[in-house]
């Protein structure tokens, strides 16, 4: 943890975020009364932000003992980390930590012998499975927050290496339809503008990947006046992008015309060595997927004759032929490295799913196989209903007659 003198600022920012998180607040109040997590040790590897802080405080009010590490070396908000320590939560996270420190923090969290893991990217779970099998019998279950982590965990399960059940919070409708789309869309643009202060209007903006994060980012870039191009490997998603009004082409072609390229695929080298060869002078490269593997940074380094920092989070690479490429935030999560991550209002639903999934696992994990599971539908719907109520919005309910009609097969034309 960097500096305890930052705690006061952290408390203020955590309280500000809480104003936009009414669903989590209602859960916290119930947890405080019922203590459903009493005696449970939780090891969390998440982005240490104001929104995450409110989730940690909710779990603590439920009776849990928590140790928290960062899930990305650049995503920690140091004032938040200090404030959480003052609240009684063990935090191992410093913005800008190197890789060795990053993994030492994950190991420190595992040293608490947790019963539940909470992960964002699956680094905690994979470290546990590869280095700390001696404590794995203490772990009952876990949750995973993001697409990249879910992919890794499903691969572990397919290889029969996953030792306990994990709920993929990312798969909840109230997570990926809102957090991934509206959260990533807005926060990535925020990070891009904070890092560069460029005018987006008129720029050719390439979005690599048209999943829910890509949909949100493409929509927001178009709203800023950009000419948006989408690259995809999935023909269905590519067709959807076309019908949403975007140009679609291979990355090697898009690289020739792009002013800005942002990757949100969750995969490897969406901007590969061939695309790097085609990049035009002055292009800005960034990533909002979980790992910086989405951009082939070694290929850029191999072609470079010089590199220097131009601004905070903006590194200039000068290529042998004189072209300049600008890489933002080391290719790491732009929205959390150069900005503050998703707005609290959208994380309210994601973290409500986290809190309720933890509670559900404490009560039900013993009957589950070591696989990746979706968020129970009743939790997902409860989160949506509570969010609507917090916004003062009511919806219709089916009458008995309508319910009967919906289950009747005899009536027809």
TrEMBL record:
It comes from the Bacteria. Binds 1 NAD(+) per subunit. It catalyses: S-adenosyl-L-homocysteine + H2O = L-homocysteine + adenosine. Gene3D superfamilies: Adenosylhomocysteinase-like (3.40.50.1480), NAD(P)-binding Rossmann-like Domain (3.40.50.720). Keywords: Cytoplasm, Hydrolase, NAD, One-carbon metabolism. Substrate binds at residues 49, 120, 145, 175, 179. Pathway: Amino-acid biosynthesis; L-homocysteine biosynthesis; L-homocysteine from S-adenosyl-L-homocysteine: step 1/1. Signal peptide: none annotated. InterPro entries: Adenosylhomocyst_ase-like_sf, Adenosylhomocysteinase-like, Ado_hCys_hydrolase_NAD-bd, NAD(P)-bd_dom_sf, S-Ado-L-homoCys_hydrolase_CS. It is found in: Cytoplasm. GO terms for cellular component: cytosol. Its EC number is 3.13.2.1. Residues 180-341 form the S-adenosyl-L-homocysteine hydrolase NAD binding domain. NAD(+) binds at residues 146-148, 180, 209-216, 232, 288-290, 335, 342. Belongs to the adenosylhomocysteinase family. May play a key role in the regulation of the intracellular concentration of adenosylhomocysteine. This is Adenosylhomocysteinase. It comes from Thermobaculum terrenum (strain ATCC BAA-798 / CCMEE 7001 / YNP1). The lineage of its organism: Bacteria, Bacillati, Chloroflexota, Chloroflexia, Candidatus Thermobaculales. The gene is ahcY.
């Amino acid at each position: 943890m960097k500096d305890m003198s930052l705690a006061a600022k952290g408390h203020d920012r955590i309280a500000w975020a809480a104003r936009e998180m009414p669903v989590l607040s209602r859960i916290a109040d119930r947890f405080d009364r019922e203590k459903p997590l009493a005696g449970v040790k939780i090891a969390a590897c998440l982005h240490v932000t104001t929104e995450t802080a409110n989730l940690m405080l909710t779990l603590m009010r439920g009776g849990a003992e928590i140790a928290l590490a960062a899930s990305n070396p650049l995503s920690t908000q140091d004032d938040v980390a200090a404030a959480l320590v003052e609240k009684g939560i063990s935090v191992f996270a410093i913005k800008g930590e190197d890789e060795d420190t990053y993994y030492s923090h994950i190991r420190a969290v595992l040293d608490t012998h947790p019963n539940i893991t909470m992960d964002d990217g699956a680094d905690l779970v994979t470290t546990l499975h590869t280095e700390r099998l001696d404590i794995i019998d203490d772990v009952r279950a876990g949750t995973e927050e993001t697409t990249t982590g879910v992919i890794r965990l499903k691969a572990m399960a397919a290889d029969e290496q996953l030792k306990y059940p994990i709920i993929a919070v990312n798969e909840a409708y109230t997570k990926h339809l809102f957090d991934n789309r509206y959260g990533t869309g807005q926060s990535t643009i925020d990070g891009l503008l904070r890092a560069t202060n460029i005018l987006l209007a008129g720029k050719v903006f390439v979005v690599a990947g048209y999943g829910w994060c890509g949909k949100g980012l493409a929509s927001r870039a178009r709203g800023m006046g950009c000419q948006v191009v989408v690259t995809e490997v999935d023909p269905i998603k590519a067709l959807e992008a076309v019908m949403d009004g975007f140009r679609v082409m291979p990355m090697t072609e898009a690289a020739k015309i792009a002013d800005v390229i942002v990757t949100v695929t969750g995969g490897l080298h969406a901007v590969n060595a061939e695309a790097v060869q085609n990049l035009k002078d002055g292009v800005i490269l960034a990533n909002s997927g979980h790992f910086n593997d989405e951009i082939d940074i070694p290929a850029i380094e191999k072609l470079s004759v010089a590199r220097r920092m131009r601004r905070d989070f903006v590194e200039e690479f000068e290529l042998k032929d004189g072209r300049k490429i600008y890489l933002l935030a080391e290719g790491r999560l732009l929205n959390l490295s150069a900005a503050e991550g998703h707005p609290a209002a959208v994380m309210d639903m994601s973290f409500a799913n986290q809190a309720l999934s933890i509670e559900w696992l404490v009560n039900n994990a013993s009957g589950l196989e070591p696989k990746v599971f979706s968020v129970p539908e009743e939790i997902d719907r409860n989160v949506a209903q509570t969010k609507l109520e917090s916004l003062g919005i009511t919806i219709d309910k089916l009458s008995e007659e309508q319910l009967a009609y919906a289950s009747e097969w005899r009536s027809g034309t």
